[in-house]
Structure formats: C-alpha cells, structure tokens
Amino acid sequence: MEFNQTQHDNALVVAITGRLDAVTAPELDVQCAQWLKADQTKVVVDLSGLEYISSAGLRSILSAAKQLKTAGGGIAFCGLSGMVLEVFSVSGFTGLFPVHGSMDEALAAV
Amino acid sequence: MTPLVLTASLDSLSRVTKHVLEHARSAGVPPDKELRIDLVLEEILVNIINHAYKDGQGEVEVDCEVNEHGFCCTLSDTGPPFDPLGTAPHLPEGDIDHRPAGGVGLTLVTTMADRCTYRRQGNRNQLTFCFATQ
User: Residue B105's closest chain A neighbor by CA?
Assistant: First the structure.
C-alpha cells in the first residue's frame, strides 16, 4: 500500500493505492497521526487506486475520521469503484461519509 | 485434497489466500470473484485469530473442494464452540462519533459469498463458504 499526498488550498489530498487490509491498515493509523501532528485536519482520500479493502481497513478509516473530526476537521472520499465501492456500500460507509464522484467535488465539500 | 494447516496469524494470510485462489481458479470460479474470495478469507481468518485463539495461538485448517454448491472452502479451528452465523448479521449503527469500530466483517462474509454454513465437528468450528463455478 502506498500513500501519495498533495497539498491543496483547503485540504490535504491523500491517494491510497494497493491493498488496505489487516496487515497494512496500521500504516493508515500512522499516517493519520502524522496528519494530526502537522495540523492537517481536512483530508480528501482518493481511493481510485485502491484495489482491495477489508473490515480492518474500514476500521482504520473510521478511526481516522473520528480523530480528524475531533480535531475540528473532516474527511471526504472520492474515486471509489469496484470491490472498494461494494465494501463501502455493504458496510454502510457510503451513508456514514461524504463519498464524491470527483476530487473537485470532494475538495469543495470537505 | 490434503488440507493446508497453518498457525492462525496474520503472517499466514497471504499463504492461505494464495492456496485457496489457486484451487478456486482450477475449479473454474470466475476471475472477477477473486477479490471477494480474498476478502471472505481475510475476514474469517481474522475472526479466528481474534475470537477462537484470543488467549493464545492455535492452528487453522484450510480445506478446498468442489461439490454441488460450486467451489467450497472450509476453515476450521479448535477454539470454543462459536457459530458466527448463528445470529442474523446486522450492521452497527450510529454516526461517525457513535459508530463502534467492529461488527462489519461477518456481514461482508455473508454478503460476498454465495453460500455460508457453520458446523461444530468434534472439537472444531468449521466455517464453509462457497462460490459458484462457471
């Protein structure tokens, strides 16, 4: 799994590629701690390059969302498709988080 | 077919997945189902690690077969009797602040697999999932 981060005017865009599973999910926890440390509390997560996610990955996403919200920011998602969109949908995460069709929409909403 | 027996740990996840996917391909499971199989395997293995052997380590046995239900894979453990399918799957509720972290894995298993069954055989929990073949 890889993280590619780009600073935009109002938010940090983080593109996650590869697999977000029980083995790699702790890496997202580490990333989230770094965002908070750098006072980056508004994050748009681009999942267009994510090929696989499990409940362990969802757990880390929920944890990150809670921490960012507590810090006064928020999280939004874009680029979901295929299996990742299906897992978000089945688990109710599409109703829990703002999920947008494009990065511009997500940036405008976060 | 000889079952694969491994320590129930996250270190075994990639070997379990490789083993099962090889058999699934041979059995004729469509390639677009492979990520679903991958997911179901991870959720069941994590469940075994966290619940069957929460106080220590144990083994997981992985057995694949083709039968009237298609390609079927059984994961078994020697933990205390536990039927994860015994209660109707329900998703945790609440907004971001109130939603609990867990409770999604088994819903994913039962949604993604074409068929799921549990049985207690001797001292073993046996969870079987099946996918239709082409």
Answer: A55
Q: Which one, of B32, B33, B43, B51, lies nearest residue A54 by Cα?
A: B43
ipTM of the complex: 0.93
Q: How many CB atoms lie within 10 A of CB A40?
A: 18
Has residue B21 got a pLDDT over 70? yes
Choose among A54, A62, A91: nearest Cβ to B107. Answer: A91
Amino acid at B61: E
Chain B, nearest residue to A70 by Cα = B97
Do B101 and A63 make contact, defined as CB atoms within 8 angstroms? yes
Cβ atoms of residues B111 and B129 within 8 Å = no
Q: Rounded to the nearest 10 degrees, what angle do helices A82-90 and B34-47 cross at?
A: 40
Residue A76, strand partner residues:
A44
Handedness of CA A57, A42, A94, B35 (dihedral sign): negative
For residue A20, the chain B residue with the least C-alpha distance is B39
Check whether B92 has a pLDDT greater than 80.
no
Tokens 């298609």 correspond to B70
**Sequence-ordered list of residues with C-beta below 8 angstroms from that of B113, at least 6 positions apart, any chain:** B36, B40, B129, B130, B131
Of the partner residues A59, A66, A92, the one whose CB lies closest to the CB of residue B102: A59
Residue B13 contacts A, CB cutoff 8 Å: yes
Phi, psi of B72 (to 5 degrees): -125, 145
Which residues in chain B touch residue A56, judged by CB atoms under 8 angstroms apart?
A: 42, 46
